[in-house]
Amino acid sequence: MTDDPLRDLLIKHLGRIAPDISFDDVDTGADLREEYDIDSMDFMTLITALGKDLSLPMPETDYDQMGSFDDLLAYLHSQSTT
């Protein structure tokens, strides 16, 4: 757990999608799909779960802002009041 609830939530959901990958072993600035070896369906599952948990619309037009873990976390911070 960190002092950032959005980061913790993102790690939790990524852990459900890619349970065999240790967060400590990934480059948070690299392409999210490559680092976590997730396909487009897994990505959609991640975005849907985050949007639901945060009551946050995450339109497809914003997906280009969610390329890496760091990008997605920054997006969540910019869109959320949490």
Characterise the protein shown here:
The protein is mostly helical. Helix content is 52%, strand content 0%. It is built from four helices and no strands. Helix 1 (5-17) packs antiparallel against helix 3.
Described by strand count, sense and barrel closure, the largest sheet is: none
Q: How many distinct beta strands?
A: 0
Poorly predicted sequence stretches spanning 5 or more consecutive residues: none
In whole angstroms, the N-to-C terminal distance is 16 Å
Radius of gyration: 12 Å
Features:
82 residues; mainly alpha; 4 helices
What is this structure's SSE topology?
Elements: H1 5-17, H2 32-35, H3 40-54, H4 69-79
